[in-house]
DNA sequence: CATTTGATGTCCT
DNA sequence: GGACATCAAATGC
C-alpha cells in the first residue's frame, strides 16, 4: 500500500478501501465496511481537538489509531488527512481463520469480523498497534482482485452527525455488521 | 424477530 | 456524574 493512499480526505479513502485485503500478522480479510470521520465532524474523536487518547489521529497519515470503545472494545482506525480517519467496521475473513476463531471463541465465520469490536478482537488489535505505520509489518495489504461495487449510507452507533453518508460497504456482502437500509422506492 | 441489559475506559462538564 | 464510533446474552414476542 502506497503511503500516499492515506494522505487524502477520509471519505475518499474509506470508499477506496472497500475490496482491499488487510492482514495483521498474516490474519485478516477483505475490507467490506468502513466509516469516515474528520475534523469538522461532530461525531469524530478529533472534533474537540487533541487529547491523550486521540493523539495518533493528529499524527501523520498512513498510521493506525486504536482506541477503546464503551470501556471494553478496541477499534482500529486508519489516519488519513490531518485529524481525519477511517474506522474499519467489518472484514470478510480470508486468512488465519483458525487464529480468529481461537481469539473470538467458537463463532461462525460471518460474525468473526462483523463490527469494529469483533474485527479488532479477531485481529488481536490493541494499544500496541496505536500509531504504527500501515505500510510495514505487521500490516500488509492486497489490491482488490476485481472491480468493486461500493454502496454508501449513514453511519452506525453515533448520536451527532447522523445525516453524513460516510459509511461505505461492499455492495451485497453478507459480512457487514449491519445491512445498508433499503433504498426508498 | 425485537428490545433490554451489563460490562466499565476515557473524556467531558 | 454522564456520554460514548460496542457486543453478547437474556428475555419477550
UniProtKB/TrEMBL annotation:
GO terms for molecular function: alkylbase DNA N-glycosylase activity; DNA binding. Its EC number is 3.2.2.-. Keywords: DNA damage, DNA repair, Glycosidase, Hydrolase. One of its GO terms (biological process) is base-excision repair. It holds the Pfam family Pur_DNA_glyco. Belongs to the DNA glycosylase MPG family. This is Putative 3-methyladenine DNA glycosylase. It comes from Methylobacterium brachythecii.
Amino acid at each position: 500500500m502506497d503511503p500516499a493512499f492515506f494522505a487524502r480526505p477520509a471519505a475518499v479513502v474509506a470508499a477506496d478501501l472497500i475490496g482491499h485485503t488487510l492482514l495483521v500478522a498474516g490474519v485478516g480479510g477483505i475490507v467490506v465496511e468502513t466509516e469516515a470521520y474528520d475534523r469538522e465532524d461532530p461525531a469524530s474523536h478529533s472534533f474537540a481537538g487533541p487529547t491523550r487518547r486521540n493523539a495518533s489521529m493528529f499524527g501523520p497519515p498512513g498510521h493506525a489509531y486504536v482506541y477503546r470503545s464503551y470501556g471494553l472494545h478496541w477499534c482500529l482506525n486508519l489516519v488519513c488527512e490531518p485529524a481525519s480517519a477511517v474506522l474499519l467496521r467489518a472484514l470478510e475473513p480470508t486468512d488465519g481463520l483458525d487464529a480468529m476463531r481461537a481469539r473470538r471463541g467458537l463463532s461462525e465465520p460471518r460474525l468473526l469480523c462483523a463490527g469494529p469490536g469483533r474485527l479488532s478482537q479477531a485481529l488481536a488489535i490493541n494499544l500496541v498497534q496505536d500509531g504504527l505505520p500501515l505500510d510495514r509489518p505487521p500490516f500488509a495489504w492486497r489490491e482488490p482482485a476485481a472491480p468493486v461495487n461500493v454502496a454508501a449510507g449513514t453511519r452506525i452507533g453515533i448520536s451527532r452527525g447522523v445525516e453524513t453518508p460516510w459509511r461505505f460497504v461492499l455492495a451485497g456482502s453478507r459480512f457487514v455488521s449491519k445491512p445498508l437500509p433499503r433504498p426508498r422506492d
